[in-house]
User: Fold this.
Amino acid sequence: MYEWIKALHVIAVISWMAGMLYLPRLFVYHCEAEKGSKQSETFKVMERRLMRAIINPAMIVTWLAGLYLVWAGHWYLSGWFHAKLLLVLVMSSVHGFFSRWRRDFEADRNTRSQKFYRIINEVPTVLMIFIVILVVVKPF
Ligand code: HEM
Assistant:
């Protein structure tokens, strides 16, 4: 059972990360589109579908499967898990910010620059690298 849930966890993680890496890239392109233009409306649909169909459900499955693994594997006392939990909480907050910024784009009230989204784009990448090292290498 444990191995099956771990497989589900990794599948959900891949989907969540795919969305978390792609959405800010869409924001970068969306900044270039004129408000009210056809292109801007297309980006809105792409962003909404990515968020609702992939990113949100994938995050929920990642959390549910991950919490099962912690409970079943008695990992809650391990140092690597505490560090991973902290980074995963940061990732979940970034998710929350993406959700807010997506709604800003949808309402044509985005004021952040393209450069801002380019920089933010790197945050989930860096978090993901450290999370995977922690869970696979378990350095402490
Ligand atoms: C959302 C909260 C999360 C919790 C509670 C959680 C917890 C866990 C636990 C307890 C394991 C089992 C470790 C083992 O059996 O050795 C695991 C496996 C794994 N987690 Fe997470 N995790 C979460 C999110 C994430 C995220 C965001 C990523 C990647 C960005 C990730 C990547 C992985 C990977 C790659 C494995 C498989 C490691 C292996 O088989 O050696 N997890 N997770």
